[in-house]
From TrEMBL:
<feature type="domain" description="3-hydroxyacyl-CoA dehydrogenase NAD binding">
    <location>
        <begin position="17"/>
        <end position="204"/>
    </location>
</feature>
<dbReference type="GO" id="GO:0003857">
    <property type="term" value="F:(3S)-3-hydroxyacyl-CoA dehydrogenase (NAD+) activity"/>
</dbReference>
<keyword id="KW-0443">Lipid metabolism</keyword>
<dbReference type="GO" id="GO:0006635">
    <property type="term" value="P:fatty acid beta-oxidation"/>
</dbReference>
<keyword id="KW-0496">Mitochondrion</keyword>
<dbReference type="GO" id="GO:0005759">
    <property type="term" value="C:mitochondrial matrix"/>
</dbReference>
<dbReference type="GO" id="GO:0070403">
    <property type="term" value="F:NAD+ binding"/>
</dbReference>
<feature type="binding site">
    <location>
        <position position="72"/>
    </location>
    <ligand>
        <name>CoA</name>
    </ligand>
</feature>
<feature type="site" description="Important for catalytic activity">
    <location>
        <position position="160"/>
    </location>
</feature>
<protein>
    <submittedName>
        <fullName>Hydroxyacyl-coenzyme a mitochondrial</fullName>
    </submittedName>
</protein>
<keyword id="KW-0276">Fatty acid metabolism</keyword>
<keyword id="KW-0560">Oxidoreductase</keyword>
<feature type="binding site">
    <location>
        <position position="61"/>
    </location>
    <ligand>
        <name>CoA</name>
    </ligand>
</feature>
<feature type="binding site">
    <location>
        <position position="139"/>
    </location>
    <ligand>
        <name>CoA</name>
    </ligand>
</feature>
<feature type="domain" description="3-hydroxyacyl-CoA dehydrogenase C-terminal">
    <location>
        <begin position="206"/>
        <end position="303"/>
    </location>
</feature>
<comment type="pathway">
    <text>Lipid metabolism; fatty acid beta-oxidation.</text>
</comment>
<keyword id="KW-0520">NAD</keyword>
């Protein structure tokens, strides 16, 4: 007796086109490493000046990476020039979210603010093809809070990169209860192809790294506020005494003080009984004064 086999209803996920939304500190790096790995990249920004500066950042970083490869004898100048053209050709830029309609994976790296991310995901879910996977680069927000508004929590993961994306080798993949196994495996394949190591974690505040790292940055800020040591001495101490590549206040400037503040304010509001979540008054004052760290030219340090 012949039996008919029905194909499983699970969609087939295959990543060829990667959409990146937000070309700031993180998004430009995510777009670049994806294009370098051979993916077609659609890079989307909200406003023309930010799109222009994202483009410039990608260009500058790619030139730096390739000239370093030439310097080290890993590539000839001609090969580097060809590679630059090839990588650049893989990236298209747009101010229109609809440009992502046939992306296979969309990585979101927009501002760390739930009131911005929720409407964003509602809109994204209605524009992008139904089999596309969404990955949020949020540092601290609960992924489930915007996975549901996207309309496809089963195709949603946290995809948490580290700054600077071009150099940092880790990506945290946050797996929701709803994330389909095939989606998770496809995303793992993407992370491997861009040359990063993946770790998996649950949808908890700060995942693994930020849950441990951000409270340490807070403690350094409080130490400075109490006048126990200078900014420079706190940083040198953690570099030479604990082997950290950057001291905590240098790192806070590097991450962006606005992002640090968004993370901590969000946590304090959502988890008021967690003693590790504190907003240092010096952090709030710096951000209120427009001092956002390296990206604005001043934070705990003055940046040239
Ligand atoms: N693009 C391309 N090349 C870059 C680059 C970029 N964006 N940034 C640096 N490089 C190049 C440099 O030109 C340099 O090239 P040469 O070796 O030819 O000089 C090379 O990479 C190394 O740069 P540095 O000399 O600055 O190297 P370093 O040894 O000081 O390392 C670092 C830099 C990797 C950033 C290191 O200082 C470090 O690991 N710092 C800590 C970073 C960290 O903790 N990041 C995580 C932040 S938390 C986070 O991201 C999560 C969150 O949600 C907030
Ligand atoms: P950023 O301020 O440098 O860049 C955010 C970009 O998003 C800006 O260029 C802005 O124009 C754009 N944007 C805002 N709303 C948008 C919208 N609706 N559509 C399209 N573009 C929009 O911020 P960042 O540091 O790159 O952080 C982005 C995300 O990555 C945040 O969720 C942050 O928590 C997370 N993250 C940051 C770091 C870090 O070290 N800075 C590390 C890991 C993760």
């Amino acid at each position: 007796v012949q039996q008919r086999r029905t194909l499983a209803a699970t969609p087939h996920y295959d990543i060829k086109k990667v959409g990146v939304v937000g070309l700031g500190l993180m998004g430009h790096g995510i777009g670049l490493v994806s294009a370098q790995a051979g993916y077609e990249v659609i890079a989307v920004e909200a406003q023309a000046p930010a799109l222009e500066s994202g483009k410039k950042r990608i260009d500058k970083s790619l030139s730096k990476i390739l000239s370093k490869a030439v310097e080290k004898g890993k590539m000839t100048l001609e090969a580097a020039e060809k590679e630059k053209e090839k990588v650049e050709r893989r990236i298209t830029y747009s101010l229109d979210l609809a440009a992502l309609r046939d992306a296979d994976l969309v990585v979101e790296a927009i501002v760390e603010n739930l009131d911005v991310k929720i409407p964003f995901y509602k809109q994204l879910g209605s524009l992008v093809k139904p089999t596309a996977i969404f990955g949020s680069n949020t540092s601290s927000l609960k992924i489930g809070d915007f996975a549901a508004p996207s309309g496809r929590p089963q195709q949603f993961v946290g995809l948490h990169f580290f700054n600077p994306v071009q150099l940092m080798r880790l990506v945290e993949i946050v797996r929701l209860h709803e994330t389909e196994p095939a989606v998770f495996e496809t995303v793992r394949g993407y992370v491997a192809r861009i040359g990063k190591t993946a770790v998996t974690c649950q949808d908890t505040p700060g995942f693994i790294v930020n849950r441990l790292l951000v409270p340490a940055l807070v403690q350094a800020m409080l130490m400075k506020e109490r006048g126990e040591a200078s900014v420079e001495d706190i940083d040198v101490a953690m570099q030479l005494g604990a082997g950290h590549p950057m001291g905590p206040l240098h790192l806070a400037d590097y991450i962006g003080l606005d992002t640090c503040l968004f993370i901590l304010e969000g946590w304090v509001k959502k988890y008021p009984n967690e003693p590790a979540f504190i907003v240092p008054s010096s952090l709030r004052a710096l951000v209120q004064g427009g001092k956002l760290g390296r990206k604005s030219g001043e934070g705990f340090y003055v940046w040239e």
